[in-house]
Design the sequence.
């Protein structure tokens, strides 16, 4: 399929380049010169209008292919990614108290996180580039989603993880048949080995931020939110932030729709980090450049001390008149229980951090109670049962006896319900 | 919404009863007198035809509401269940070698298993009956799906688990805010306490087999398989079997479509059990009544020594000219790796058991290579990382060094791929 891609532009020096499936960062600026894919919106407009969506029977992220950089004919063979539910959260909002609250549940994607949107694109771009091996270094959702989609499409994946990677996540990767390289070293050593190997062997690179197509996959979450709300997105959209690629994608999606005249204004973006690792929040609060932070939080998917996509992420919040906020691990665990018990959605710590952020932002007056909000729940709680246990504690053992049960329920003040 | 329910009939004595949201088993036959819900197909036919489905924009299990026993107006408030992907498994079938192989991926439901279909119905029926508390005893997917959907709809759930319940599954329940009753006893003591409490307090009963509406929820998986294959389902449909309710539901779904003239013949059902707990297979092989079995398998979701829905399950296989087959835990672990690495789908042991069963059935000539097969993957592998670890083993640690990497890849014979 023909795309409407015009050119790639370096976010640092502004230089423009011709489209290519293997493009990485700007040759002049090096690793910090992250490329942005630019579209010919005037021509795109002739195809992509409200009617296009009304008639579209593809209920997956690929209904947005004309807004993306993927040319592949293999889309029909992929696992089903996207068109995840957007729920109005009436019960949860009895506690948050904004005008209306929505949850975008990304935990029901094939590998159970939003990262499937990026990895699906990466796998198709690798195939366009005639690569048979695709690689990244990661311990988390990027890795599992890559291994998942590579397996489905018959590509080999090579994934580098540091020694400290939790065995549960490593297991998921191995079930997907990835070639797992468990590095006897820290994350930096792991990343460096992956970089050397990718260069030496010519593998396709799915490392975050370096590959400009990944953001184009992630932006589909914003396109869906807008369409699911009949192209009137909420005043605010909140998402947790690690390396900055996801919030950059969310921004790009809404920007596309604005350029196409399909939405009237950008939602304000709330970037949520954990207090244990909040370089974006620090930089925003002190109006100073991003500084490396410790990675000291239970929300491992956003524990990124040196974010790799800072420029796009900072622009996303600044240009949307948004805000940054940091929440504690205790806030995150409380939000996990709240989301589970009020809405029946089980999120991993990084997934529910944005909900904790919304509550704090409402409390601080950043988000007004007269405004509407969407909360992007980025990953399934089943990915990290260890930390979920911290949210709920251990169960109390009870004798198999009706009287014991009755007393237990009374003690907990629950007997009135029965 | 009006339904087409005609009456309830006892599967044991044949007595018929008027519809009721709180109906349980047959008063004459007791717990073994499981009820079957019967429909007025002649009247249903006037509404439910091919055109009804062509025009239906509800892509969830509720597109089949006219074929079900749910009257509730609250369906729109539920979490999104069903219309899960049906994938053609081209890569996996290079190993299985049947005419065509399809995978129905139930792991992407809200609580990550097929049981969401039954629990969603149970919660709506409880609301129809004006109950505010719903209860069951289970350690597995029935419990987590019930807690999930009850939370979303604002019902209280009380779930009884035996002491041995794995902490991971218990954690998920507690995040959903269930009132967890952890019983200091075995499963039988736990079930009995739940039964006493449900009777004493008048809670809504979601115990498997006792509630006749659960099968009506589960049958939607078969309705979807048929519709996704344009009403020409595969020659065989394989599903793993524990208490027998799921295979009974699969049978009922295809039966409905046959009665409506929407499909021409019933697919043959392959009931798959684990060799460590295979009462149905034993009874079938020896042509004798069902006998209690030990529960000695890693596939905990189908480890049911005394199945609670034997009659419907046995009829499902017999009437469809199907077969029973048992697979070993080793077969199950091999199928888990195979499914993950060939198709990018991570299934729990009970979820992949049916795939192991298909392979064995092909090997034994029960399924012919000229036939088409659907494999129902009932639950997500993230629910049970402990057992998945047994499938893949532990990773090998590698020095952060390119030469070490090169040697490692060569040793594994993988360097040819790079």
Sequence:
């Amino acid at each position: 399929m023909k795309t409407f891609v015009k050119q790639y532009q370096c976010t640092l020096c502004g230089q423009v380049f011709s489209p290519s499936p293997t493009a990485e960062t700007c040759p002049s600026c090096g690793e910090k010169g992250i490329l942005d894919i630019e579209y010919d919106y005037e021509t795109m407009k002739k195809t992509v209008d409200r009617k296009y969506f009304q008639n579209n029977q593809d209920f997956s992220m690929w209904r947005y292919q004309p807004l993306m950089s993927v040319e592949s004919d293999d889309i029909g063979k992929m696992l089903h990614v996207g068109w995840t539910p957007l729920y109005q959260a009436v019960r949860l909002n009895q506690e948050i108290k904004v005008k209306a609250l929505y949850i975008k549940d990304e935990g029901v994607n094939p590998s159970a996180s939003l990262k499937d949107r990026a990895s699906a694109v990466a796998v198709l771009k690798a195939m366009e580039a005639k690569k048979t091996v695709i690689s990244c270094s990661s311990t988390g959702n990027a890795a599992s989603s890559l291994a998942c989609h590579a397996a489905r499409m018959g590509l080999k994946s090579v994934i580098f993880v540091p020694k400290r990677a939790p065995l549960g996540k490593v297991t998921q990767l191995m079930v997907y048949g990835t070639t797992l390289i468990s590095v006897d070293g820290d994350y930096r050593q792991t990343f460096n080995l992956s970089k050397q190997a990718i260069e030496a062997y010519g593998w396709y690179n799915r490392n975050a931020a370096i590959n400009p197509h990944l953001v184009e996959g992630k932006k589909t979450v914003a396109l869906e939110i807008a369409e699911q709300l009949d192209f009137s997105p909420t005043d605010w959209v909140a998402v947790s932030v690690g390396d900055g690629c996801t919030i950059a994608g969310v921004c790009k999606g809404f920007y596309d729709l604005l350029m196409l005249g399909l939405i009237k204004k950008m939602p304000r973006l709330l970037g949520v980090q954990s207090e244990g690792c909040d370089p974006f929040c620090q930089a925003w609060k002190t109006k100073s450049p991003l500084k490396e932070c410790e990675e000291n939080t239970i929300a491992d998917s956003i524990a990124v001390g040196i974010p790799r996509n800072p420029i796009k992420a900072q622009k996303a919040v600044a240009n949307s008149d948004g805000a940054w906020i940091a929440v504690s691990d205790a806030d995150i665990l409380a939000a996990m229980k709240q989301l589970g018990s009020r809405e029946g959605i089980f999120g991993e710590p990084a997934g529910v951090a944005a909900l904790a952020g919304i509550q704090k932002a409402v409390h601080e007056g950043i988000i007004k109670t007269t405004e509407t909000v969407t909360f992007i729940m980025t990953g399934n709680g089943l990915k990290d049962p260890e930390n979920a246990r911290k949210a709920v504690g251990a169960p109390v053992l009870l004798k198999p006896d009706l009287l014991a049960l009755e007393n237990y329920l009374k003690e907990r003040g629950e007997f009135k319900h029965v």
User: Anything to note?
Assistant: Chain A touches chain B through 89 residues (CB under 8 Å).
